[in-house]
Amino acid sequence: MALGTLQGSKQGCQPACGNITVPYPFGIGKDTGCSLDKSFYMTCNTSYEPSKLFLASSILEVHSFSDSELRLFTGVSYKCYNKSGDIYSEYSRWTSLSLSAYTYTFSERNKFTVVGCDDIAFIEVDSSFSGCRGLCSKLSDVDDIGPNLNPEPEKGRKKETNSQRDKKERRQIHRNGPTDEGECSGKGCCETSITKGLKYYDIILDTPSGHINVSDFNKCGYAFLSEEGSFRFGGAKDLYTKTDLDFYNRVTSSVPLVLDWVIAPAVQNCSDQANECKGKSHCYDVDSGGYRCRCNQGYEGNPYLDQGCQGLFLVFF
Fold it and tell me: Which stretches are tagged as biased composition: Basic and acidic residues (predicted)?
């Protein structure tokens, strides 16, 4: 078993949904007895192909599980502007974990990210704000696409205008792709940390100038919360997309958001109430409250199932 993973569902319960195996204390179905309690139940929506797994009865789609974290597919807020600076398409994302009775919190391993050339965004938590700003004035600000695309013209030829240069850059970007993919340095993409222990956040996305000066190559601004290192900025290819939803679809289908989870969040330490750790396992405290279980050294398995952890067999040759 890989380090940090759980294995094994409760006997008699549906073990998987689509491509995702659901380990106990999580379980599929409300009031089925397949999860530890109502905080750990999942919904399997079979109307998708393959089926998709969601946290409780929410719209929060599950990405994967580990022995201390639950990953969800992240959501993205966006606003798109026409050449006059008016919004023609937008979506605002907020996420609350209040349904889970404090079992889950947003991990501090997440980063708040803003993508765009004329965009500023804030993440609001309990009336406090943090945020960052993405800026750029031309595509080459965010992607080294080769040699100087606007050299001094030969005698008798006119120098390229900014609009002509941007069109050339766009053609070359979609042909070759970005060369500095992944860098999020403030030019076209910025990111900032979040406070530990959050259970709710709201994204406020705005623009200083309505994208008027960058509308030829960047119509939309985006903001989202995701696991640090999981999002790779595609440079100009993320700013100038073939359709407004290309970037949105890429991020929401592949980039995870991390939740920390605990057993009995009202319990502050491994007291006599910490009774979910089964045979050959032990309890350990979590700083924010609650506890988790871990197999003893030399054992593996699922410490929450009745059969507990099993001994490792060593074979000598």
Answer: 152-169
